[in-house]
Write a structure and sequence with these properties.
By secondary structure, the chain is of the alpha/beta class. It contains seven helices and eleven strands. This is Putative hydrolase.
């Protein structure tokens, strides 16, 4: 399961390279997946395999995107559509159409986030939309009284904005604890994704699913290593 944030055109970032993937590199990566033995599957399909309901018949990968940056619409979605690849975007419910005000250093790209109308149009075109909290905090650091507002309320607001169910959650910064995990489950989400680096089928449960982050520095060999070999060791 792969994790992206920004996909666009920008110079090499001075820091936080894991937030960026150049548009040209992204196009090469998707072309690589298209000709590789891997099958790109939806998060729903992967979840069915992770929970033992319907095993996958071939090595597979899921494409996920956190935050909902505006550059996704221009640079990533047309490439995904051209290949017929499913993907899930995790949006920050109370920041639709605003800027990513949680960033702690100047952004190397455009930090605008897609608005509700754009997300609805992409969802109508086949993009799966999940929740990435209401305001992108570190959930484990919040008092219990505020956690449900970031989790359950975010799901409700996104569903109202999109006019469709929101089934999946991704922890901002990959930050969570057992209470946060349990609140995500209680809110009605079918799954929650972490930033733990491992194969998704090794998830402890449906609410602690690992992902492999893709970085600006990932060339062709490193991308192949991350998608096919990095976590193939047996345990």
């Amino acid at each position: 399961m792969l994790l992206y944030h920004h996909v666009g055109r920008f110079a090499r970032p001075a820091r936080q390279l894991g937030l960026y993937c150049h548009a040209d590199a992204f196009a090469r990566q998707m072309a690589y997946l298209a000709r590789s033995p891997l099958t790109v599957v939806s998060l729903d399909r992967a979840l069915a395999a992770i929970t033992g309901q319907a095993p996958l018949g071939a090595p597979s990968v899921v494409l996920t995107f956190d935050d909902g940056f505006e550059d996704f619409r221009e640079y990533a979605w047309p490439v995904l559509r051209a290949h017929g690849f499913p993907a899930t975007m995790f949006a920050v419910a109370d920041r639709l159409g605003a800027r990513a005000d949680w960033l702690t250093s100047p952004s190397a790209g455009d930090d605008r986030l897609m608005d509700a109308a754009t997300l609805r149009a992409l969802a109508d075109d086949g993009l799966d939309i999940g929740a990435h909290s209401a305001t992108h905090p570190r959930l484990s650091r919040l008092p219990p009284a505020k956690r449900d507002a970031e989790i359950a309320d975010a799901r409700n607001r996104l569903q109202d904005a999109l006019g469709r169910p929101v089934k999946h959650f991704a922890y901002p910064y990959g930050d969570y604890d057992a209470d946060v995990r349990d609140r995500v489950a209680a809110a009605g989400f079918a799954s929650a994704l972490t930033c733990i680096r491992d194969r998704a089928e090794r998830a402890a449960n449906a609410y602690e699913i690992p992902r492999e982050g893709i970085s600006y520095k990932d060339g062709r060999l490193r991308y192949a290593y991350k998608t096919r070999w990095r976590h193939n060791r047996r345990r």
